[in-house]
Every structure is written in structure tokens, then in C-alpha cells.
Amino acid sequence: MTGAIAFHRSYSIATDEKKGLRIFSEDMPGIQLITTPELLRYWAEETRAEFNLVCEVIQNTRYKGVYMTPRGHALLDWWEVHMG
User: Fold this and answer.
1) What is the pLDDT of residue 44?
2) Torsion angle of the four alpha carbons 25, 81, 63, 14, in this order, in degrees rounded to the nearest 10
3) Residues 30 and 55 placed together within one structural domain of the fold
4) What are phi and psi of 25, to 5 degrees?
5) 3-state class (DSSP) for residue 34
6) How many domains does the chain have?
7) 56: part of which helix (H) or strand (E)?
């Protein structure tokens, strides 16, 4: 249902779920898929957040949100710089 709505309304989908990313990219290649690192980097750049604040948000996402950036993710290096 999420994919159908995004497809017909030209929306993007934010997900980190491997299966969801695979299915959407295969079945609906025109939909923009956004992951947690992409969302946080966009926020950090758009708000010009201070380095320490970005580090705090990423560390909270990692430990409180129990999120791990997948190996091979395009923003893995950026993420790890902010993990400290």
C-alpha cells in the first residue's frame, strides 16, 4: 500500500528495511528511497547543525534506536565520523 500511494502521488519512501528497499527498488524504480543516514545528513546540512549536535543525534539513533548503518551504505563513512 505504501508503494502504491508513493507511486501514484510521486512521493518518496523512507525505510531502512532491507526487504522493503529491495522490493521497492525492483518493482518501482522511479520511487525515491530514503534511509536514516540520508535523512540525518539532510537535516544536518539544511540546518547547519553543529558537529557535536550531529554526533549526539547519530549516537542516540545508534544506541537508543538500536540502528546500525549497513555495510556498503553510501554514507557509512559520514556516519562513522559522527559516532566518535
Assistant:
1) 98
2) -20
3) no
4) -70, -30
5) strand
6) 2
7) helix 51-63
Domain of residue 16, residue span: 1-34
Q: Which three cell numbers stand for residue 51?
A: 558537529
- Tell me: do 68 and 80 sit in the same domain: yes
Residues 22 and 43 in one domain: no
The full DSSP string for 22-56 is: HHHHHH-TTS-EE-HHHHHHHHHHHHT--HHHHHH
Give the per-residue pLDDT at 3: 87
Question: Do 23 and 62 reside in the same domain of the chain?
Answer: no
- Residues 24, 62 share a domain: no
Handedness of CA 45, 50, 54, 57 (dihedral sign): negative
Backbone angles phi, psi at 13, to 5 degrees: -125, 130
Beta strand residue intervals within 2-49, DSSP E? 13-14, 33-34
| Average confidence (pLDDT) per 10 residues, the chain, 84 residues | 90 93 90 96 97 97 94 95 90
